[in-house]
Amino acid sequence: MGCDQLEAGNDSGLGGKLWDPETKKNLTLPRGYMTFSDIDAGKDGEKEFVTASNYFENYYVGDQTMVQTEEHILSTTFWGKDAELGLDNPKQNAELTPVQKKKAVTLQFGKEGLQAAVFKFGSLQGETSREIRFGFQPTMLCSKTHMPDGSILDAMDSGQGNIFPRANGREAAKDFNSLGICFGKDCDS
Fold first, then answer.
1. Is there a domain that residue 72 lies in?
2. Where would a tag sit more exposed on the chain, N or C end, judged by fewer CB atoms within 10 A?
3. What does the H/E/C string look like for 88-108?
4. What integer pLDDT is reported at residue 9 of this predicted model?
5. Owning domain of residue 133
6. Is residue 187 part of a domain?
7. DSSP helix/strand/coil, 78
8. Residue range 21-62, pLDDT digits in tens
């Protein structure tokens, strides 16, 4: 998992190509996911944002998301709108709390694969530094949810207050195959 920490009012653009260090040739990942988490704001209105070029097929946010989405022709921007001062930052490979899932977005790439990822992080002007985390993992689809009562729910458990993923800001299909999501043996090809 990567992390980008910024002073309020700044942004940082990143682009990355995938390549084989031995052959020095560019690679294409046939399918996969990239998640941005901890998208929120500071106490003085330092709204964080992630803008990603539309290299992805679908994006997933929680059914009670705290992330505002702006879809454009060539890119999509995800804005954090709720103030938080770093006390709920997710840890790598941990179950996420419902609030942490509400402040995350998972991008899915597939059919044509991924040769390069281009995105920009940033924050509006304010007093506090901001932090956004990212990694190549399907957090919204796979990460368990650590509920306030101590129970642990699978990502796809509906009900009981779990944060269920929605495709492209709408209801997730009952048949995840229609969204190109594979499980178990379906992922072999």
1. yes
2. C
3. CCCCCCCCECHHHHHCCEEEE
4. 56
5. 2-175
6. no
7. strand
8. 899 888 887 778 888 988 888 887 778 889 998 888 889 998
Check residue 73 and report its DSSP letter: S
Q: What does the alpha-carbon distance between residue 74 and residue 68 come to, in Å, rounded to a whole number?
A: 17
Q: Residue 5 corresponds to which tokens in the numbers above?
A: 């920490």
Q: How many domains does the chain have?
A: 1
The pTM assigned to this predicted structure is: 0.82
Confirm whether 129 is domain-assigned. Answer: yes
Tokens coding 8: 């309020």
Q: In b/e form, how buried is each residue of 1-17, taking b as 16+ CB within 10 angstroms?
A: eeebebebeeeeeeeee
Closest by CA to 119, choosing from 14, 34, 36, is 14
Looking at the domain assignment, is residue 6 inside a domain?
A: yes
Give the tens place of pLDDT for each residue, 67-104: 999 999 999 999 998 887 666 666 656 788 899 899 99
